[in-house]
Write a structure and sequence with these properties.
Blueprint (H helix, E strand, L loop, with lengths): L1 E14 L3 E3 L2 E3 L3 E3 L7 H13 L5 H4 L12 H14 L2 E11 L9 H12 L6 E6 L5 H4 L3 E12 L7
Parallel strand pairs: 5-6
Antiparallel strand pairs: 1-4, 1-7, 2-3, 5-7
Helix pairs in contact: 1-3, 3-4
Length: about 160
């Protein structure tokens, strides 16, 4: 059995916060505003994993009303989500993600992000593909007001099927 999940997240850019994407701190004059570190890439990945497993969304598992998750390093949430996925007999086949940001340029960080995210799930980083694009100046993201990410995952059952 295989299952597909899709995740999306967006947060506003503000001064005075670190910019964390894919678990990596990116040098930039603004960071993402949120209850946790607001890592849109990791949040989108968590939602994609949870969706593929039929387990709801990140807000159900880690509500922003819970002070335990205040300023939480989202990569730790990804580790926990993946542990929960595995406990359901599922494993990551691959993840494909896109970050939407007018700035900063993210090319130099894509591999580091994939390695960090893969490490948090104890999977080969080659199972994770990260892309970055702009919105060509259109909308709030194009004006530099925020950053968004979208992620799709494919999970497979780790339980043997009949005949194996």
């Amino acid at each position: 059995m295989t299952r597909i999940g899709l995740g999306y997240d967006v947060h506003r850019l503000v001064p005075g916060r670190k910019l964390v994407l894919g678990g990596e701190t990116i040098p930039f004059e603004k960071g993402l505003l949120g209850h946790s570190d607001a890592d849109v890439l990791v949040h989108a990945a968590c939602d994609a994993l949870l969706g593929a497993a039929g387990m709801g969304d990140i807000g159900e598992h880690f509500p922003d009303t819970d002070p335990a998750y205040r300023d939480k390093y989202s990569i730790d949430l990804l580790s926990e989500v993946y542990r929960r996925i595995q406990s359901r007999g599922l494993a990551l086949v691959n993840m494909d993600a896109t970050i939407f940001a007018e700035a900063p340029k993210l090319f130099a960080f894509k591999t580091k992000m994939a390695v960090r995210m893969a490490g948090s799930m104890a999977v080969d980083h080659q199972r994770i593909n990260i892309k970055a694009t702009t919105t060509e100046g259109l909308g709030a993201i194009g004006r530099g007001a925020g950053i968004a990410a979208m992620c799709v995952v494919l999970l497979k059952s780790t339980a043997p099927t009949a005949g194996e």
